[in-house]
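Feature request disguised as a bug: please show the residue count (453) next to MPN domain-containing protein in the output. Example input:
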Amino acid sequence: MASKVSHINDPSARLKALCEYGSQVEVDNTLPTKLYFRSGRELIRMANVYLDEANYESAFILYSKYITLFVERLPSHPGYKSSPPPDLAEIKKKMKTVFPLAEEIKSKLKKRYIEEQREREELEAKRQAKVEAENARKRAEEEERLREKLAEEEKIRNESEEKWCREQEERYRELQLQEQRRLAQLEIDKDKDNNISGLNNERISVPSGNLDFIPNDLSNYMPPTDIGITTIPPVPDRDLKKNLTISDSSSPQIPVVNRDSKPNFDHFTSIGNFGGGSCNIRKVVVPTSIFSQFLKVAESNTNRNTETLGILFGKLSKNAFHISDVFIPKQHGTPDSCDMENEIDLIDYQDKYDLITLGWIHTHPTQTAFLSSVDMHTHFPYQKMMPESVAIVCSPKFKESGVFRLTQNGLNQIGSCKQTGFHYHQKEPPLFEQGEGVELVEGTSVRFTDGRK
Ligand SMILES: [Zn+2]
Ligand SMILES: [Zn+2]
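Example output, currently without the count:
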């Protein structure tokens, strides 16, 4: 799975980046600590799922966030010291297993990162060797070509020298013949003269330097001089070449961890964009049967023009949430509101089925499906604790249902609004949106547990 840190090669830098994600936890002091204790249990639940699915990076981030939340952040919450002792004891107990588990995963990841880096380096070395071999082959080819060229030039030069020598020899022979003919002629002429006068027997001396004009050196001979070792292009410095090749390649760069680039969605129950979908919100799968099932449960209230409320629970699987359960608490409803009668403890119920809180569902007996100002305030803590939490509204009268979530603007406005009851909020930009990151599926039913009985 591609992750936020997979672009970092250096194992230590990669782990460091992961740890930084795990330390990104913010606590809203206006929310009661019990919500954080509940979220803490859900963090562990989600981390366990990631661990089972061998998604070690996500598991590590969530265990780290658990540690950061309860060791560093929550203790400075004003209500921390007055938290129920069992909650505090539970954290203390959990830490004994979470700490070593996080360490174990961390060393597992480190091993994996080192192994991945080794594989990367091996691949790079192979690639380098291939490039080197190719360069060597090209150099050998070039040298062979030069050798052939030199041999060819040498051959041409030898041939022209031989030709010149042959010509000179022929010329020499020609001159010798001429000289012999001349001498012979002289003999004839002399005999003639003797026969005529019979007086002069002196030999006529012949100058002996007549053959000196034959060149005895090759000073005028100009064999081609543009051949020779100086014309071979210099072989590039191999070390330099190697250096250039390395700086050209992209993989073995020194990893740079940009500390400014925080994930654009940072939430303590999220894993950042470690395999997350759009906006790093994990998908929430809602079975469509939930609407009709809930309207059936709410029917008697609806007939009395009274709202009905349920809590949504689900499971994490392959980085998506699946709503699987609705718990109907003891409640007191009116035509446009509904409150739990007392904050019931759902820990046992959640533990029994290993559930994660994913929002709430309620009816609007006479109105359309939307989020009223009171609904938005009710939904705020759900979404603050778990960014994927939804508010489902069913309108039997208008036969419509909506799966809502606060927008970032909605979270900002509601988070800073101190009013209670129905009141006005600036409506632009929109405070809530419908169906974002939600997938409706058919053919799955939801388990309803009625806590009113
Ligand atoms: Zn409502
Ligand atoms: Zn408000």
